[in-house]
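Subject: for your reference before the review

Hello V.,

The reviewers asked for a structural picture of the protein, and I figured it would be easier to keep everything in one thread rather than splitting it across files. Below is the amino acid sequence we used in the manuscript, unchanged from the supplementary table.
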Amino acid sequence: MTWTNWARNQRCAPVSVVSPASVDELSAAIVAAGAAGQRVKPVGAGHSFTSIAATDGVQLRLDQLSGLVSADRATGLVTLHAGTRLHQIPALLAPYGLAMENLGDIDAQSISGAISTGTHGTGGAFGGIATQVRALSLVLADGSVVTCSAEERPDLFAAARVGLGALGVLATVTLQCVPAFLLHAVEKPVPFEEMLGSFHERVAAHDHVEFYWFPHTDWTLYKEDTRYPLEADRKPLGKIASYIDDELLSNTAFGALCRLGHHVPGVIRTVNKVSARALGAREYRDLSHRVLVSPRRVRFCEMEYAVPRDSITDVLREVRSLIDRRGWRVSFPIEIRVAAADDIWLSTASERESAYIAVHKYFRTPHEEYFRAVEDIVATVAGRPHWGKLHYLSAADLATRYPRFDDFVRLRDEIDPESRFSNEYLDRVLGSRVSS
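And here is what came back from the structure prediction:
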């Protein structure tokens, strides 16, 4: 059986596939793999663009290990099974009047996959999804189940929140949720230079800020969201307006244009200019997850790097200059977001306020030359790659960019001495196990 990820750029042929429906079954599967001398990798939605979930050993599909374990309305603490998909969580939390503090713009991932790869949303005062985690339980290579938090096994907690699947298999995730809230969204085109000149002020003034720059144009699509209490008036988008913008233009028409650009690259400049102006201004207020998450039905490959926040405008200008110098035709917009600093060892925002630059290519179009050239630009400011998105760095490169990288590797070697949870990707980015 061949497994393929969402972007269709990663494949593997596991020797076996196991779908545990309980933590006991999960533990037993890991023990059995160890007895057979096989490596183990869990997989969720397959929404990573790297081979982080690929294996030639035992693939653990966690779809049955899903749902709510417990929720406390008073404290906001919610425990979920690790295979729970992000898009399932709002309905699970609604009876308790709770919501996740922040989300990214895609909700297909499992909660364990999202935190393990460092998935994030945007907001100058908000960290990645892993910063919402208050406790974890995970199954180690010997089949034992351990829990960790800021108070219990704090080093494991600091590592496992963005653990890359290298330390064990997550069984449950406890999140600090917040009272459900609304977001007032303002979306509008903003000229490129105006956007870059005012970006940091916008981040400081609003809860959630991001923008997309359309290559070959002088325009960005800017989005700002302001948090409101649930009691405020909702002003959702009408069904027709939502369908036209989010489905017809952003997915159906955009997908058709990507296919056209793939076959006839010469039209991309014109297409981008039309696209940049087609998505006009709109304003609405709705439940937080309905504003933060957007449908993404056009398949693509992506690379995303975190850079020091104050460097982002210079980085984007360099990327724009790069595209112009090389004469490339880039159909996908470039996305810019931000996150607060945190204390998670392999978080892309570890110990520094960060901005993110994400570059994409239609999944049928070659991307490596473009991605490598952008990677060279972000290297000048010690950029850190999103662990679930394409990059070309090795452990030697990454060790200089994370203050606690060596601590993570030492912990990995200690709790997984036989490299039960490794694969080719983890061997590259973390290095093979250090010999004792």
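For the response letter, the relevant points are probably these. The chain has a mean pLDDT of 92. The chain has three domains: 3-60, 63-179, 182-385.

Happy to draft the paragraph if you're swamped.

O.
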